[in-house]
Each structure stands twice: as structure tokens, then as C-alpha cells.
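Minimal example, chain plus manganese (II) ion.
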Amino acid sequence: MKANIVLLPGDGIGPEVVNEARLVLDAVAAKFGHEFQYSTHLLGGCAIDATGTAMPEATLAACKAAAAVLLGAVGGPKWDDPQSPVRPEQGLLAIRKGLGLYANLRPVKAIPSLAKLSPLKPERVAGVDFVVIRELTGGLYFGQPKGRTQTPEGERAVDTLIYTEHEIRRIVRLGFELARKRRKFLTSIDKANVLESSRLWRKIAIEIGKEYPDVKLEHQLVDSAAMRLITHAAQFDVIVTENMFGDILTDEAAVLAGSLGLLPSASLGEGTLGLYEPIHGSAPDIAGKGIANPTGTILSAAMLLRHSLGLEKEAAAVEAAVAATIDAGKLTADLGTATPLNTTQMGAAIRERL
Ligand code: IPM
Ligand code: MN
């Protein structure tokens, strides 16, 4: 097949890891007889420097016209002033919203040979294999009103948590669909003991659950879910939750895998267009040193093959190559080895096993 893929390397280690993932996509194309064409665009801090805005119109237009988008990471100390009116993270939020990508899939799987990397006891990590579906374009991130005002008593800040029935319905349905393809167990995480938006969320989850009698649905409050992620994470199969809860819980969940550098994500909407990115940030402390772990981005490219291009066999081949590389003890510095591979060596080691 032919496909146009937009690359958004972004800032920090973004360009280094995206480059390795692109080489993996090229290797897939060669091996399976596909033709991928790439165009590279600006997002985040690099876009602010070049154009004054974190998401230039040209970037959004190119993404809309593409089959899929592969993103590195945005942000860095240079653009860190929280008072600044333009910030790299705005680019990320604008592109999610602009492309209508309301569903963020974050799979978390513990690799047995890396169990020692997790700060948790090995028995807490054993068997962990779940996917978090985080709602990505609603809730506190986007709700209006939002902003700051001066009052006689001092400044006042407001963020608004809104969910409509439509927004809840489509994301919860996705949760059931994914659970149906896995272990048929869906955990809907909310704060229904306090929040009205969570009570609506729970009501709709129960309603939709009636259409999926083969999937077991449970509800859990976000605070106790945060604890269960540390104590009994292997119990989870598919988690579905709102934007902010999902943001927080997925960073927590990353600890189970041992390194942030391993984890991919996919952001999906109504069609097949998706945005794929590692869940780690731009890691300014190691940027430019060539030692970043490209695995999370390469696994994101595998998700791109699966969800946007419908290339399941190819996606599975990339995932198998990553697993074989790690099993062979070929590891980057973040994976606790005395003889680390650098970014390009790790990418090459994965491609060799493809
Ligand atoms: C993430 C990030 C972003 C988010 C930030 C950078 C805006 O933390 O992708 O999880 O909060 O969604
Ligand atoms: Mn986050």
C-alpha cells in the first residue's frame, strides 16, 4: 500500500527517536512491499522559534491530509516560562483538538526480563498487561470558561470540567469494543462520589454496558484506582477514563513497565487518521547526546501501522522485533545495563530482528 505519513519530530530527543522509528517504517515498507512517503513539519518549541506559534496552520493542514502522524515530543527549558502566552504544549493540545482525536490509547505491558527496573516488587509487576483509554479532547483541558481575572481580593483562576453525553458515549463504547477483543473486562474510572460529570459518565457506561453483555464492566473511583495500579495492576484489562484522570494515571502506570522510554500511545478519532507518540517527554537533559531510547516511538509506529494503515501483520512484526531485541539483552541506558546501546544502535538492533 501507499501512505503519506507526517513526521512531527518536535523538540529535545524528539528528532532522534522519530528518526529511528522512520527507519523502522522504511524497513517494514521494504520487507512487506509498501510505499511510505514522509513530510516533516513543525510543532512545539521549534515551531514557536520559527513561526511564533506552537502549531502553525501548515502543520495542521499537512496532518489533516495525511494517513497518519508520528510525533516525537514537545517542550524544553527554553520555552518553560508558564507566564508566556505561547507554550509548546499548546501545540500538542491544538493538534489533538484540531484533528478530533478524542481517544488516547496507552498500552502498558510489563516485560518479564525488565521487571527488576521497576521500583515495585517483582510480584506487583508480574502479568501486567492492560490498555488505558484516555478521553483526550474534553474535560478540564478544554472546558469553558477558563482563565484568570482580577478581583478585589486578588486573582481568581477557573477551569471547567464539562462532559457531554455524546463525548462520554463514544469513548466508553471504544472501551467496550477493545475489551471485547481482549480479556472482556472493562474498568471505568471516575469520581462519581463527588463530581456531577462523573455521575453522568457512570450512568452512560452502565447504559452502554447493556449492549455488551459479554464484557464485564466495573466502576472504580480514581483515588482507589491509583492505589490498585500499584498493588494489583495485573487485574486490569481495559481502563476507560476522562482526560485528566487518564493523564495522571498513565504516568503512574508507566512505572510498571520500568522505563517511560518503552511506552507508545495512539490518539484516534472518527476516521483512520491517528497521531502516534511515545508517552515520554522531550528529555532535555539527554537531548542531542544520541542515547535516548527509541523503543516507545518505534512501538508507536507499530500502532500507526495497525490503527491508521490497517497493517496488523506488519505491526505485530515490529512488536515482535522489539521484544526479541530486549530479550537478547540489547538495551539502552535507561534499561539498566552495563553495556548500553545508543539510540541508533538500538534502532538498528530492532530492524535486524524484523
Ligand atoms: C501527555 C502530556 C500532555 C497532557 C501535556 C504535555 C499537555 O502530559 O500527553 O500526557 O497533559 O496531555
Ligand atoms: Mn501526561
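The domain at 1-103+265-354 is CATH 3.40.718.10 (Isopropylmalate Dehydrogenase). The first strand starts at residue 2 and ends at 10.
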